[in-house]
């Protein structure tokens, strides 16, 4: 039983450290490069903000996207609309010479056409409901809780030895 508890504690420490590291990296990228969508080795993440992609994706899902050189019909992509600061994750329903038409699976209308430069990447992994945790950790209160929890777990782990 002690081994399981220690294993879970170590897993929690690693998880918190990864989240904190990525959040600090994202903050650095957004300030230094004016990047609205920080990427590491061609990968980034977004939190699904609405039910527009139901049943494929739900609000609060975390999607991991990979920057591709080309996107095809039926790919689910994350992009930014012209003049909007929020990312959108929708399906490519039509590809034309210089632009793409996207639409949420649950939507009746298609989105405004987008071009390659507006696309951050293709969805390669979906983690249901993890986006809620990420959003909390990215908030000031969540960051404080995460840092406190990390140091508490680290302190308890070193105290036992």
UniProtKB/TrEMBL annotation:
CDD domains: S26_SPase_I
Location(s), subcellular: Endoplasmic reticulum membrane
Primary enzyme class: hydrolase
Residue span(s) of domain Peptidase S24/S26A/S26B/S26C: 46-124
Membrane topology type: Single-pass type II membrane protein
Transmembrane segments: 7-28, 129-156
Functional description taken from the UniProt entry: Catalytic component of the signal peptidase complex (SPC) which catalyzes the cleavage of N-terminal signal sequences from nascent proteins as they are translocated into the lumen of the endoplasmic reticulum. Specifically cleaves N-terminal signal peptides that contain a hydrophobic alpha-helix (h-region) shorter than 18-20 amino acids.
Protein name: Signal peptidase I
The species this protein was found in: Candidatus Enterococcus ferrettii
């Amino acid at each position: 039983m002690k081994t399981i508890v220690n294993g879970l504690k170590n897993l929690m420490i690693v998880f918190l450290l990864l989240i904190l590291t990525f959040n600090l990296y994202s903050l650095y990228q957004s300030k230094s490069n004016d990047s609205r969508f920080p990427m590491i080795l061609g990968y980034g993440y977004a939190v699904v903000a609405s039910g527009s992609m139901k049943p494929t994706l739900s609000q609060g899902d975390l999607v991991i996207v990979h920057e591709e050189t080309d996107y095809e019909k039926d790919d689910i992509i994350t992009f930014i609309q012209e003049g909007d600061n929020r990312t959108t994750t929708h399906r490519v329903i039509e590809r034309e010479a210089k632009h793409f038409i996207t639409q949420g699976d649950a939507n009746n209308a298609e989105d405004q056409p987008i071009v390659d430069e507006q696309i951050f990447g293709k969805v390669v992994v979906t983690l249901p409901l993890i986006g809620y945790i990420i959003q909390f950790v990215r908030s000031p209160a969540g960051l404080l809780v995460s840092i406190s929890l990390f140091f508490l777990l680290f302190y308890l782990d070193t105290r036992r030895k």
